[in-house]
Amino acid sequence: MSTIATPVLSDSVRSSHLTSEHEATVRATLPVIGAHINEITPIFYNRMFAEHPELIRDTFNRGNQRSGGQQKALAASVATFASMLVDPSAPDPVAMLSRIAHKHVSLGITADQYQIVHDHLFAAIVEVLGEAVTPEVAEAWDEVYWLMAETLIAAESEMYRAAGVEPGDVFRDAVLTDRRDLSDMVTEFTFSAPEEFALARAGQYVSIGVVLADGARQLRQYSLVDWSSEGFSIAVQRDGEVSAALLDALNVGDRVDATLPAGDLVLDEGVVAGETPVVLVSSGIGSTPMTGMLSSLVAAGTSPTVTVIHADETAASYAQRDVTEGYLAALRDAGATVHAVTSYREEGETVDLTALAAESVVPVGAAWYLCGGNGFLQSIRAQLETEAAVLRPAAVNVELFSPNDWLLGE
Contact at 8 Å (CB) between 241 and 290? Predict the structure, then answer.
């Protein structure tokens, strides 16, 4: 038994190609499909859930469906993949597909479900575009879909194999052993769980499933704060049905469904070994995976160069400030070079990477890890691009609060 590892996707993604006839068709129709994709996807989901109500009841997050986030994620992923197939200069979608594969495995998605998605997606395309979907157009986009689906199926199959489980067999019983308030908005939950959870990597998450009052089993991902052979801890902020159910109704001794740890926002081995400097940037509850990473660095006993940058509404709302400061103190005691920067919106403060670079607070050649709200992450990424010649980041790794996969390609 091993943890769910990140699949090797880059070569397989770039080697995907359309037939010449289909490539010409996709290139010609991509603007039309793209212009109507936000009309197509809600119809697709409505059709699929009408025929397969178990998917919206037990697998898909209803909050993401209501907000439209999941629809936009699907639209962006298909369009991004199609663009890569017809434009050699387009960004490689490997990061997007890796993130999707991890999310799918954390939900127990299996290969047979791709056919369900295909049938209802293409029915929705025909419903919206009508006679514009000639047999040639349908055939070309069918190839796009299956090239993307087969890439994901292969990656997910490998992840299940590496974890030593059958496809979809990722749910385990977890029993609440403790809960404690970190702030007025955030509570830490600790669960006992099988030894498999000890194999988690710093930065990964678990899906937690709770049965709601209407009988639906809803799932949501939560980054790991801590983990061991006895169980794991997560931090929960009130936002959505699952979080509300955990905060309002889950008591010590109650059980939930928890999936094996997944996620590709994990610390590089060079960082853990103290060879590569690291910058951890978060906003709000995005501090959760960062505390897991800091815990891992403390446990490694190395002397890395670490900069932690966090933005929050107020000092009181920074729920994981105390635990973060404890880990940073332990790293300093072990000889690490440590910088910590906080900014609070209530006080009119923002994160200014240009100023931090001028003050040598952020190291050159670091591995960057970002987690937070979409607007915050877009700002940080734009600043990183502006300061790229100065900071020369070794890598920029992103985890998003919502299924907005298109941000990974920007």
Answer: no
